[in-house]
Predict the structure.
Amino acid sequence: MSRTVYVNGAYLAEERAAVSVFDRGFLMADGVYEVTSVLGGRLIDFGGHMARLRRSLDALEIEAPVDDDELLAIHRELVARNAIEDGLVYLQVTRGNPGDRDFAYPAPGTTRPTLVLFTQDKPGLADNPAARTGWKVISIPDIRWGRRDIKTVQLLYPSMGKMMAKRAGADDAWMVEDGFVTEGTSNNAYIVRGGRIITRQLSPDILHGITRAAVLRFAREAQMEVEERPFSIEEAQGADEAFVTSASAFVMPVVEIDGVRLGDGAPGPVARRLREIYLEESRRAAL
Ligand code: PMP
C-alpha cells in the first residue's frame, strides 16, 4: 500500500513525491535528519529529537523550515494517515535547491530549505526478537569526519560498516579511533563492568544520542553507577556485558565483539533491565 509522505507543506502519495536534482541534500549531503520512534501510535522522545534537529541546523546555518509545533503536527498527521501503531518517523531538512550546483552556500534568505518526512511501519518494534539473543559486533576503523555530533545525512561510511558487519556474520560494527570505541554505525556503545555502566563522554566525536541521554538519566535515577569515558575493544571484550542504544533499537544487548563472547553469551541483566525501564518510561511520556 502506498504511504503518504510529506514534502514542503504537501501530503502526497509516495509515488508522487519529488525533490529537485539540484537539491543540495542530493548533490552534497548538505542536510540533517532525525528518526523518532512510534510505539502505540505515540512519539517517543519527540522533544529531544527536535532539540537536536535545531542544534544540527544551527551548526550548519540552515534555516529551520517550520516551528516545533508544526513539526509535531506533521509527525502526528503522518502517523495517523499511515495508521502507524509501531514504527518510525524519518525527518530530513536540506539546504534546499539553489537552482544550480555550487560549493558555496546560497545567500541567506534566497533558498527555501527542503523538508521531507515519511513513516516506516514496524509492527512489534519494541518486541524485536534480537533483544532476546543480543547482537554480535565487529570493530572497524572510524574514518568519518570530525563533526559527528551534527546528525547529517552523510551515511555512506556507516552503511559500509553495516555491510562489513553483515559479511562477517555480525549484526553491527563498532568504530574505533585512536584505540578507543567511538560508537556503533547507528547507535551509541556501552559496556558494563562490576555493575558500572561505561560509555564514551559527549564530544564532537560521537552523535549525542537522544536514547543515550534518556537511558543514562533512568540509570542514575535507578541508582546505577555511570562512568562517561572512552573504552577499548580489549576492555569491552573483557567486560561483563555490552549494549547499544538508538531510537529504533532502544537498548540492544551486545553478546559478542570481534568473535569474543561476553560472559555466558546471553544478554546481561543490566542491559535487559535498562531496556525494560527505557521502554516503560518512554511509553509513559510519549506524545
Ligand atoms: N550514533 C550514531 C552514529 C547514530 O546514527 C545514531 C542513530 N541515529 C545514534 C548514535 C543514536 O542516536 P539516537 O539515540 O538519538 O537514535
